[in-house]
Design goal:
Structural class: alpha/beta
Largest sheet: 5 strands, mixed
Number of strands: 12
Number of helices: 11
Low-confidence stretches: 1-7, 297-307
CATH topology of the largest domain: Udp-n-acetylmuramoylalanyl-d-glutamate--2,6- Diaminopimelate Ligase, Chain: A, domain 1
Shape: globular
Order of helices and strands: HHEEHEHEHHEEEHEEHEHEHHE
CATH architecture of the largest domain: 3-Layer(aba) Sandwich
Number of domains: 2
CATH superfamily of the largest domain: NIF3 (NGG1p interacting factor 3)-like
Helix content: 25-40%
Mean pLDDT: 90
Radius of gyration: 21 Å
CATH class of the largest domain: Alpha Beta
Strand order of the largest sheet: 1-4-3-2-12
Oligomer: single chain
Length: 307
């Protein structure tokens, strides 16, 4: 059979059908009140033959989707998360919108709904840590679906040192200039892992209540991280939880292959055929890092060591 005949035999979904399938996997009702997940551009009846997945709707990603002749770009982060008064192409966001529309490529954002859904961002992150996501529970269960919600907490089948866990994550999480930052004794044993893909310092109290030995997240700011460490090292405490801080986009990029596979499978179950691609562009905003001299020998001031 020729490729032309194969193309004619394919049952191509409409954009509306793809959005409905996405909603079945990562329900938009799960998104946070402040979020802007959902369809940004595109006609509901337009055919979708090819879908491109990425974390960020930046210009390079839009160009990549257009070069692939994608009919739909699905990004984790929304392009228009705050109100705007213009999408003129003279602005970088407006240019992305114009480029996509002019090339008939729709844009769909699946942000905190994909964070909270099963087989979403946090499930992918806790799997990278070595925990079976099917055995992990949400840190903040959704009010309507206790199996979904923000973050995850679960238990390793075998305890490892904090250093070993960090090395495992460094291998599994896409590389960035930041790499991983760790707070805690590298030789302490950890068993219970809490994670939250993306910015997770708002969940510190919940993580402590969960009894997790270590918390894996991103975008940890100085003061919340310092206060969490002071609490962890306070009288009677055992340094729980240790902290592992990844780059924001890297902690979420693990979900992209899962999302692409699950969406293609959901559409195939309806007899609908699409091609899916996952961007390998690094959209983390930082380009390089310069380590401090003798950074490995920096004194641990909490233990009273001096240089």
């Amino acid at each position: 059979m020729t490729s032309e005949a194969q193309s004619q035999d394919r049952t191509i979904p409409t954009l509306a059908q793809v959005v409905a399938a996405a909603d079945s996997l990562w329900p938009f009702r799960l998104q946070e009140d402040w979020d802007a997940s959902g369809l940004v551009t595109g006609r509901p009846d337009q055919p979708v033959r090819r879908i491109h997945f990425a974390v960020d709707p930046v210009a390079a990603v839009a160009e990549e989707a257009i070069a692939l002749d994608a009919d739909l770009l699905i990004t984790h982060h929304p392009l228009l998360i705050r109100g705007v008064t213009s999408v003129a192409a003279e602005g970088f966001k407006g240019k992305v919108i114009h480029d996509l529309i002019e090339n008939r490529c729709a844009l769909l954002a699946c942000h905190t709904n994909a964070d909270s859904a099963r087989r979403g961002v946090s499930d992918a992150l806790i799997a990278a840590a070595g925990v079976n996501p099917d055995d992990a529970a949400p840190l903040v269960p959704d009010a309507t679906d206790p199996n979904a919600g923000l973050g995850r907490v679960g238990t390793l089948t075998r305890s490892v040192t904090l250093r070993e866990l960090a090395q495992r994550l460094a291998t599994n999480i896409p590389g960035t200039a930041q790499g991983l930052r760790i707070a805690g004794d590298p030789d302490r044993m950890v068993t219970t892992i809490a994670v939250c893909g993306g910015s997770g310092d708002s969940l510190f109290h919940t993580v402590r209540s969960s009894g997790a030995d270590v918390y894996v997240t991103a975008d940890l700011r100085h003061h919340p991280a310092s206060e969490a460490r002071e609490q962890a090292l306070g009288p009677g405490e055992k340094g729980t939880p240790a902290l592992i801080d990844a780059a924001h986009s890297a902690s979420e990029a693990l979900w992209l292959p899962w999302g692409a596979e699950d969406l293609q499978r959901a559409l195939a179950a309806q007899g609908l055929d699409v091609e899916v691609y996952v961007s390998d562009l690094r959209t983390d905003p930082w380009d390089f890092r310069v380590a401090s001299p003798d950074s490995d020998s920096t004194p641990n001031l909490t233990s009273g060591e001096t240089s």
